[in-house]
Write a structure and sequence with these properties.
This protein has 312 residues and is an alpha+beta fold. It has two domains: 213 residues, Cation efflux protein transmembrane domain (Alpha-lytic protease prodomain-like), CATH 1.20.1510; 76 residues, Cation efflux protein, cytoplasmic domain (Alpha-Beta Plaits, 2-Layer Sandwich), CATH 3.30.70. It contains eight helices and four strands. Strands 1-4-3-2 form a four-stranded mixed sheet.
Length: 312
């Protein structure tokens, strides 16, 4: 006999769980702020790169423009993954969020590929004009603004347990980090014309930053789609919580898999064979409630009851 209890889960402890509608509202609000910011930054860096004669800043502007694509993907995706469970999707629609997360990663790969190609091709092009001050202003401003946006987005992603929002936060962070070598390259090229090649090298470093960030986003997403189990130490904690419930003699056959940022669990417990069905059900319910309240990221639990085998 088993049953399922569902609950909302957030990465960090909050006073009261947020409803799906509240989570979706948070995602839309934070992503909307990011979209508006990225559009403004893209325009500023592209303008600064072109007018300031800096390939690195121009390429960095394209990176910011790619952030707009992922912002739009989240705004469209949240309408679907925030829907409640239905007959066709009894576990809800969280896999959509994972797919959006993976899309963000691949969008980064495409962006980095184009950027690295342009950077490599620029090495053979003769360039004599050093970058202008407008390019420096655009690059330096991006570091401050995108770091602030990263912190805001990451905080919200952790609070509501959104993998897509967290992935987008790290997308914002890559833009802030990538602007650092860009700024250094622009300053160097401005100080000494012979160092203008650093502008192209800076653009290539930006692309490398983005490739690394893309892998860190894609790998966990694909792993979740493949029903990766929770780490062994997390599984051990889940077993310990279940075993600590009064009346439970043994916990075994514990299986876990990620669903969005939550964990789905099914496990077997052994009880006194003379126990009534009602008493057994109450203990199973207690195991479920303890796991859901244990701040282990458990989102759903299925408990299978077995009679304790008497030793002879």
């Amino acid at each position: 006999m088993g049953s399922v209890i569902k609950t909302q889960w957030a990465v960090t402890k909050i006073k009261q769980p947020l409803s799906s509608q509240e989570q979706a509202s948070t995602v839309r609000r934070i992503t909307g702020i990011g979209l508006a910011t990225n559009l403004a930054l893209s325009a500023g860096k592209l303008l600064g790169g072109v007018l300031g004669n800096s390939l690195a800043v121009t390429v960095d502007g394209v990176h910011s423009l790619s952030d707009c694509t992922t912002d739009l993907a989240i705004l469209l995706g949240v309408k679907y993954w925030s829907r409640p469970p239905d007959a066709c999707h009894p576990y809800g629609h969280k896999r959509t969020e994972t797919l959006v997360t993976i899309f963000i990663g691949f969008a980064l790969v495409i962006t980095a590929t184009v950027m690295s190609w342009n950077a490599v091709m620029s090495f053979g092009e003769p360039r004599t004009s050093a970058p202008g001050i407008i390019a420096l202003i655009a690059a330096a401003s991006s570091i401050v603004i995108k770091e602030a946006l990263f912190r805001i987005t990451r905080r919200a992603g952790k609070r509501i347990g959104s993998s897509a929002l967290l992935a987008n936060a790290w997308h914002q962070r890559t833009d802030a980090l990538s602007s650092i070598p860009v700024t250094i390259a622009v300053v160097s090229a401005m100080l000494h014309p012979a160092l203008i090649i650093l502008d192209s090298i800076g653009a290539l470093l930006v692309a490398i930053f983005i490739f690394v960030a893309a892998w860190r986003i894609i790998a966990p997403g694909i792993s979740q789609l493949a029903d990766r189990a929770a780490p062994q130490e997390e599984t051990a904690k889940i077993s310990a919580v279940a075993a600590g419930v009064s009346g439970v003699h043994d916990v075994h056959a514990v299986r876990t898999r990620y669903y969005g940022m939550g964990i789905l669990v099914d496990l077997h417990i052994t009880l006194d064979p003379e126990m009534t069905v009602r008493a057994g059900h109450d203990i199973a319910t207690s195991v479920q409630q303890k796991l859901l309240a244990a701040e282990l990221g458990v989102e759903d639990v299925v408990v299978h009851i077995e009679p304790k085998v008497e030793e002879r």
